[in-house]
Amino acid sequence: MGKGSGLEFADLLAHKNIHQQNSLQVLFADGSFVLVKYLPTKGETTVIGLPESKDKRVFNNVLGAMGNTPLVKLERIGRDLPVPLYAKLEFMNPGGSVKDRVGAYIVEQAEKRGEIKPGGTIVEATSGNTGVGLAIAAALKGYKTIFVMPDKMSNEKILLLRAYGAKVVITPTAVGPDDPRSYYEVAKKFARETPNAILANQYHNPDNPKTHEISTGPELWEQTDGKLTDVIIGIGTGGTISGVGRYLKSKNPNIQIVGVDIEGSILTEIWQNKGVIPAGAYPKTYKVEGIGEDFLPGAMDITVVDAIERAGDRESFLWARQLVRQEGIFAGGSSGSAIAGAVKYCRKLPAGRIPVVILPDSGSRYLSKFYDDKWMREFGFLSMEFGETALADLLLAKPNKMLQTAALGDSIRKVVSVMHQNAVSQMPVVGADGSLVGLIEEVDLLNHMLERHEHNNDEKIDSLVQNAGAVFPPETPLEDAMPSLTSGYALIVVEHSKPIGILTKIDVLDYVAGKI
What we know:
Blueprint: H1 9-14, H2 16-21, E1 23-27, E2 33-39, E3 44-47, E4 71-73, E5 86-89, H3 99-112, E6 121-125, H4 129-141, E7 144-150, H5 155-163, E8 167-171, H6 183-193, E9 197-199, H7 207-214, H8 216-223, E10 230-234, H9 239-251, E11 256-262, H10 267-272, E12 307-311, H11 313-327, H12 333-346, E13 355-359, H13 373-378, H14 391-397, E14 406-407, H15 412-422, E15 426-430, E16 436-441, H16 442-450, E17 471-472, H17 478-486, E18 491-495, E19 498-503, H18 505-515
Parallel strand pairs: 5-13, 6-7, 6-9, 7-8, 10-11, 10-13, 11-12, 14-15, 17-18
Antiparallel strand pairs: 1-2, 2-3, 4-5, 15-16, 18-19
């Protein structure tokens, strides 16, 4: 019994409530308690703990904690919209995503059908989140797991799955779904070759949309008292949008089911073409994880989708970052896509409607990606602090504003002399009308002078003029010109085809240092 309680089991057995109700709640001085059950057939008592209660959020294991995620009004992000916007926070599932529901239900149904035996292996092609849902169920039920992921997925997801004891196999992203190297095909191979293994097959398994038809959809209906009018959902396997859409339309056919697709995916074209991949629709690579596809998954029911909004990588990541800073909601990149699509869609709605957007997963899986400023800048998704500064402003800030140019027909000796006198290593070269024709650099002059041939004072620079690799108008933002600068080019600023200035790395560095 509890420390200092002074009670023995014999004392409890003598208590009248034991015999009347077969159980007794004993409260100790420190406020703790224990529930004791009397088993009259054996004359024994056993501690049975707390009863499971959904109302009190007490569960026998973590599977019970899945679902019933909160609905939150987006006060700040939605303040300029004509309608209130609510978000369902699916990342508050135990495994951090909407896919917890799917993983647990797929395993449960596979067991009921006898498809997997004790000690078996669950194999899946996953972007990470379904893998986590499957891994949670597998950990509780004693199954092994093998997950196959494309190489664009975050390292956090890979490490997370390995923390659950899974074997993780990485495959190339930029291959077609039927390519033997694709993560779909590699997963199928593992499922075939591993004894007592099943392929969870979220892309074509009807248990995927069924999960949301019996859980997520009813939750949305109950949470809004049936008042919701529009639901905005990112499309990947199609399970969430199909299951939610089927349930809600069975309750009210006028509810609008809106998908969000990512630029580079061809799901929008497939939906527009009634389920068939149209000629000329080719997928492109993109950075957002978990949504978009280059084929039509069998789990996707396109008939429940009323509209699709598209979002790009950059706006998805920026919306996700804005979501955490404005609303305190730490969500993933596909949640950013969902917000981008929701904002576009809701701007077109009349007052009086109640839209809900589903946020699929947590931002904790992407700390090394779009929540990292360095990563964002590396891929051109984040503006630098001085990125909007025009090149014309940088030219005005230069201490020496005079531009030294060479002209076609100038002698090498003359150009070398001008470079020496003005301490410059390159000069724009102009034609007779003053328009830019190229660039002359000191290294080209040096290499020419070191060549074994007869030199004279009248040698011209014409044969040494190179194409100018980085030519920009004066209004160009520094951010747009930086890739050329970091690649080793000097920036030649041109107005009406005539050079008006040149900027080197040290010029930009001086400007930035002077502003700090």
